[in-house]
Amino acid sequence: MNFDISHLLEQWDYQPGQVVVRRFTGKDGQEKIQLRVDLGILQMNAEGRPDGKKPFGHASLFDFYLKKFSHSLNAVGDEAKEFALKPEDCAKLQLEALQYHHRSICLLQLEDYLGVARDTERNLKVFDFVAEHAESEELGWSLEQFRPQVLMLNTRAKATQKLLGDNFNPAVEIIDQGVDRLREFYTKYSRPELIDQSPEIQSLQLWREEVLRNRPLSKREKLESDLRDAVLREDYEKAAKVRDALRNLETQSE
C-alpha cells in the first residue's frame, strides 16, 4: 500500500485565504466532500456524521445522548437520577460539532444551502442541549461560544434559498431575524457592548443593504420613482400621468 499522497496534493494547489473544496462519489457509492488545507486534504461524507462513524450504534453522538436523556426521564427506582453532561461528554460533543461545522463551511462554498441549513440547525440544537444539561455554565459555554458564527451561516443559507427563488422580502425578514438572534445572544450573556463590534452582525447588515439595493422595485415603487424623476425634471405632463397611474393602482388594491 502506498501511503504517500503527494501526487494528490501536487494536482490540487492549496490557496491561502480561500475555501477550496470539491464533491464526488466515493468507492462506497456515497457522496464525499474534500477540503484542501495547507498540510493536506480533509475528507468527509456529504450526509450523516461527516466521518461516517456510528457512535454506540447511533447516527451521531448527539443522537446517543438524546436517547440517554430520554431514558433518564423514563427511569424509575435506583436508575432514576438527574441527567447531566460531564466535561468529557461536552468535549466529545464539541469535537463532533466541529466536524459538522467544517462541513457546513464546505457546503456553503459548494452552494448547497439546504445542506448548510441542515448542519447549522443541527449544531444549534446541540448548543441548546449542552447549555441545558451541562454540569456547569462553563461547560455549556465551551460550545455556546460558537453560536454567533453558526447563526450567521444558518441565516445566510436560509436567506439565500429565498433569494434564489426571487423572494426578496422573505429573505430580508430572515436576515433581520438572524441579526435579532445574535443581539439576543450578546444580551443574554451580558455583553451588549459587543453588539456593535460583532463581525457576524456587521456581515449580515452589510448583506441586507446589498439585498435591498438589488431587489427589483414593485409596481408602486417604480411609479413613485418615476414621479420623483418627472418632478425633478419639471416634466409635469408625465408627472400627472404617473399620479393617475398611482391612483388607479390604489383603487385596484382597495
What are its keywords?
62% helix; 254 residues; mainly alpha; 3 domains
Structure description:
With 254 residues, this protein is mostly helical. It has helices at residues 6-10, 61-74, 87-109, 113-133, 137-144, 147-164, 168-188, 199-214, 219-232, 236-253, and strands at 20-25, 31-37, 40-45. The chain folds into three domains: 47-145, no CATH class; 146-216; 219-253. It has ten helices and three strands. The protein has a three-stranded antiparallel β-sheet with strand order 1-2-3, covered by helices on one side. The mean pLDDT is 90.
Task: Sum this structure up briefly.
The protein has 254 residues and is mainly alpha-helical. It has helices at residues 6-10, 61-74, 87-109, 113-133, 137-144, 147-164, 168-188, 199-214, 219-232, 236-253, and strands at 20-25, 31-37, 40-45.
Shape, per Cα inertia axes? extended
Instruction: Give the biggest sheet.
Output: 3 strands, antiparallel
N-to-C series of helices and strands: HEEEHHHHHHHHH
Tally of alpha and pi helices:
10
Please state how the strands of the largest beta sheet are arranged side by side: 1-2-3
- Percent in helix: 55-70%
Proportion in β-strands:
5-15%
| Rg over C-alpha atoms, rounded to the nearest angstrom | 25 Å
From the N-terminal CA to the C-terminal CA, the straight-line distance is: 76 Å
How would you state the average pLDDT, rounded? 90
> Count of DSSP E strands?
3
In the predicted model, the low-confidence regions spanning at least 5 consecutive residues are none
Count of domain modules: 3
Structural class: mainly alpha
